[in-house]
Amino acid sequence: MSNPHSTQTHPPKASDPSLTGPNGANALSGGTSSARKDSGQKYDSSSISTSAYDAASVSQKQNEAASTHLDSAGGVMGSASPACTTFSPTTTVTESNSAGNTLAFASPDPSIMAVHGSVMTNFPMPRDRYRAGKNAEMSGDEWDKIASKLNKGSVSLSRGMTMTKTLPETPIETDMTGPPMDTKEGKTTTDVNGKEEKQSDVNVFTHGGEMEKQKQEQKQIEDINPVYKNDRVIAIDFDDVCSENMATIIKQHNMKYGTDLTIDDLQTYVFWQNRGWGTPAEVARKVQTLNNLLSQTTPIPGFAEGLRALHTLGHPVHIITSRPAKDREGLTRWLNEQGVTIGPGERDVIAQAHFTGAYDDVNSPVAPRGEDDEFEKELNKRLKELWADGVGKGKGGLSKLKILREINASLFIDDHHGNLKPIIRAQAQAEAQAQAQVQAETATPPIQCLLFGEYGWNKSRSGLATPVEMMDYTERSEKGLSLPADPIEFGPGKNLDRVKDWKELVEWVKGWDRAVVDDLCLDT
Prior knowledge:
Elements: H1 60-65, E1 68-70, E2 76-78, E3 93-96, E4 102-105, E5 114-115, E6 118-119, H2 140-152, E7 154-156, E8 164-166, E9 183-190, E10 196-202, H3 208-224, E11 233-236, H4 245-257, H5 280-289, H6 303-312, E12 317-321, H7 328-337, E13 350-355, H8 373-390, H9 395-406, E14 409-414, H10 417-435, E15 448-452, H11 473-478, E16 496-499, H12 502-523
């Protein structure tokens, strides 16, 4: 069958090998068609199901007159089409009689088109195409009339069949070279002589391979398309949610300082609490040499696809990072290299990026170590206080919470539990306000939190609230002390869940969106 937009002038011949399946079986009929013309058997007009459109402009009598002829005995027999003969306004139907003479018949009326008993959904002749025969030219009005009926998609089957099939609105391309189509047993009909016969019901015009491809494409669409599309704002951290920041720092640390650290050695977010990093002063000096590695940093697997999925779900996505504002250009360039852009456009995945610079004080430049041990001791003491005042009190999380409120975020995702604690506390306060029946406009809207990844530093709660936590790794090891390992609480009522990777993150958000629909349904 030719594509409706092709320039093919004549219909394909039945003998075309590209139109046959295994053992010469016709690809369209699935091997269940009636006897071929060259088999010597005559075609009984009563056994031929002619597909006719309800809106046909000619009578049944005219149609039959155009498709029948006399046999050698003067009786009327049907001129059924050979397999895959396409009836259209350009078709001339021919057949040989018992004497070997070739008989030509008028084309069926333009309102009828069929492919060996199967209704076509496409009009194979371009507009303004001339045709042979007594009706030498099809007018534009006639073409429009036929095409409009085809595009409606509803076809009524006559000639012994009363069922109605609905055809697709959009023309379906048919691969004629594939295996035979699947058929299923159809209705039993009775011919004019009272003989029962089975009609084969062809399910679709596409073969199995095309159907499977369409199913896969549909599943991909369903995997991305939301059950409920909303515009709740989602905010995400950048380092170790989008980029493998810590892994890159450790790699460079090993190269520069000759250590053998792995990412599993980072059991807390406070560097000097971990093996191999030294005192707070030594960490501050190292950070100066390990602080500009973004161009060498690899992305978290699946992050770009995950961001695009959130964007497709309808959520405006913001990045909120503790990096200083001077990193904006480098971060934007890094994202662009991953195919992720920042901006207000429809194709921009990130709406905005926000930089809090929350740890600028603890990362301030420190002079090289001198001979004065007392000065070094005081420096370490001062730096520990800065860490306790900043990281220990959730300064990073509080600075992010401020921006979350400004952008009216509903969900925040971070790899550092310490950054999420202030937001979780804010949620508890919001619930307390609601219980106290504070007016809605004064109550703090809740922000759901997700802890991203399964890193050593977010396996348990950590902080700088106890004397043991204020010791560096060497001091603590010398005393045989271990850091507290209080478990992080997750689940309903805790305003916190964990997702191990971007695949889980996207699935979590989909479920979060579905919950909104469920709540709306319950309210109504």
